[in-house]
TrEMBL record:
Swiss-Prot/TrEMBL GO biological process terms: 4-aminobenzoate biosynthetic process; folic acid biosynthetic process
Gene3D superfamilies linked to this entry: 3.30.470.10, D-amino Acid Aminotransferase, subunit A, domain 2
Keywords, in A-Z order: Folate biosynthesis, Lyase, Pyridoxal phosphate
Cofactor(s) for this UniProt protein: pyridoxal 5'-phosphate
Alphabetized GO MF terms: 4-amino-4-deoxychorismate lyase activity; pyridoxal phosphate binding
Function: Involved in the biosynthesis of p-aminobenzoate (PABA), a precursor of tetrahydrofolate. Converts 4-amino-4-deoxychorismate into 4-aminobenzoate (PABA) and pyruvate.
Name of the protein this chain belongs to: Aminodeoxychorismate lyase
The reaction(s) this protein catalyses: 4-amino-4-deoxychorismate = 4-aminobenzoate + pyruvate + H(+)
Entry's Gene Ontology cellular component terms: cytosol
Gene that encodes the chain: pabC
Subunit structure: Homodimer.
EC number in record: 4.1.3.38
């Protein structure tokens, strides 16, 4: 097996690449601080799980980590995107006899609005676009993101910072590009992701710090919570200031999460 790793400096992609033609691949997006990838063990675990569940060959992380290190060493606060495709080959949808991975590394600017949102909180509306159920892909960050493209398109008609995305049973799944979790009576809960949605890197890291219950969540459950947050690996946890006409105290939300983390750290 051969692995082709391309960066911004030497970017090439075959017109026969399966990631381009069929969305046959997966990716992760990471925050880079002072030349280091934050939460790298969790990103690495995500890439490994995606490869295993989609039937990809094992990723050579020794080579990949070396290339990533060379690619980001001069960056102070940026975003690294790692895209893995099954490469070229195969007739139609059929898999190639031999899989040669293509890995794309891209470094972009860090979204500056995340810094202000931490202080001000985010306003949420309900997206009219719902997520379809597919347990085989649930939790994975595959290259099939058309649902998210439609969600972002529909957001253009809303006056909000982000949206709550539901499934076809009207259960809360996630935000447009982030997980959602809430605090109620000192307990933390987040939507089940067994049929759709993505289990993000930051949420996974939070599960190692807090006891988080994965459950069926309704919009009403969020409205009745003491605090609600959206989170991903780039922005960490940002408090929700409103869901429609329901208003949350951002300072109180921040304090509740801080106290819970401090309490668990002592245990």
């Amino acid at each position: 097996m051969q692995t082709i790793i391309t960066t911004d400096q030497n970017s090439t992609l075959s017109t026969q690449d399966r990631g381009l033609n069929y969305g046959d691949g997966f990716f992760t997006t990471a925050k880079v601080v002072d030349g280091k990838v934050q939460y790298w063990p969790y990103h690495k675990a995500r890439l490994t799980e995606c490869a295993q569940r989609l039937g990809f060959p094992n990723i050579n992380f020794t080579e990949l980590e070396e290339r990533i290190g060379n690619c980001i060493q001069s960056y102070k606060l940026n975003v690294l995107k790692i895209v893995v495709t099954r490469g070229e080959g195969g007739r139609g949808y059929s898999l190639p006899t031999e899989c040669n991975l293509t890995i794309l590394l891209n470094v972009a600017a860090y979204p500056q609005n995340y810094l202000s949102l931490h202080q001000d909180g985010v306003s949420l509306a309900i997206s009219p676009i719902k997520l379809a159920a597919q347990p085989l892909l649930a939790g994975l960050k595959t290259l099939n993101r058309l649902e998210q493209v439609l969600i972002k398109k529909a957001m253009q008609n809303e006056s909000c910072d982000d949206v709550i995305v539901l499934d076809y049973n009207n259960n809360v799944i996630e935000a447009s590009a982030a997980n959602i979790f809430a605090i109620k009576g000192g307990r933390v809960f987040t939507p089940k992701l067994e049929e759709c949605g993505i289990k993000g890197v930051y949420l996974q890291s939070l599960c190692d710090k807090l006891a988080i219950e994965f459950k069926v969540v309704s919009v009403e459950d969020l409205i009745q919570a003491d605090a609600v947050f959206v989170c991903n690996s780039l922005m960490a946890a940002i408090p929700v200031k409103s869901i429609g006409s329901c208003i949350f105290d951002v300072s109180k939300s921040q304090l509740l999460l801080k106290e819970l983390l401090a309490k668990e750290a002592k245990c």
